[in-house]
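Summary of Year 1 activities. Much of the first year was spent building the evaluation harness for sequence design. The harness presents a backbone, in tokenized form, and records the residue chosen at every position. We chose the following record to illustrate the format because it has been used consistently in internal testing since the harness was completed.
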């Protein structure tokens, strides 16, 4: 269990104090998400679609990643489509499957993402601090995902479905090639390799 702030035997903040700061930071970032004519949930959908691969751009995958309902995501998507930031089409492979894409305006919109301010602050922290923070946050995020049994999205590196062949990489889920740039995108079908 995390120790109370008074249990400290040095000047560094207690684990609970750090957790409280993280919560406040999250709250402030959410407030900052009322910007550019959008609300925080709509910015979250835009960010997700910019990072998601071909297997992960359905309304259901968006809802799972954001930990919300399909109904809530549908409302956000309707607004984003009306504003010309997102398009919707049916998959060529399966007509029942809806695929979402960012439009050029959607990508341009993300250049004014309110989260850019925090990204700038992170840049200013310097390489070593930033790398340690990234490692620590990944660990904490993974633990919270496990605790809440939340959806675990990942990228091709370390995925049990990735196949390496003489002609390049492919995915065992849809049997399609995986280009180098796609390996970095978020995937809803990611499966952790055994023993990883
Ligand atoms: S290899 Fe894994 S992470 Fe990559 S596209 Fe296939 S299922 Fe997704």
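For this record, the design step produced the sequence shown next.
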């Amino acid at each position: 269990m995390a120790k109370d702030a008074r249990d400290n035997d040095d000047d560094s903040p207690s684990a609970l104090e750090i957790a409280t700061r993280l919560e406040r930071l999250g709250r402030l970032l959410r407030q900052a998400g009322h910007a550019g004519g959008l609300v925080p949930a709509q910015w979250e959908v835009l960010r997700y679609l910019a990072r998601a691969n071909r297997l992960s751009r359905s309304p259901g995958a968006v809802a799972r990643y954001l930990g919300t309902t399909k109904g809530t995501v549908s409302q956000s998507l309707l607004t984003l489509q009306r504003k010309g930031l997102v398009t919707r089409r049916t998959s060529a492979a399966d007509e029942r499957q809806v695929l979402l894409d960012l439009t050029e305006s959607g990508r341009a919109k993300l250049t004014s993402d309110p989260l850019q301010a925090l990204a700038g602050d992170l840049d200013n922290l310097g390489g070593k601090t930033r790398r340690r923070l990234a490692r620590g946050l990944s660990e904490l995020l993974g633990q919270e995902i496990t605790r809440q049994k939340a959806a675990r999205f990942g990228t091709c590196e370390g995925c049990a479905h990735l196949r390496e062949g003489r002609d390049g990489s492919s995915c065992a889920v849809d049997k399609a090639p995986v280009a180098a740039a796609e390996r970095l995108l978020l995937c809803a079908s990611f499966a952790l390799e055994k023993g990883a």
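Confidence is low (pLDDT under 50) at residues 3-7. Quantitative recovery figures across the full test set are reported in Table 2.
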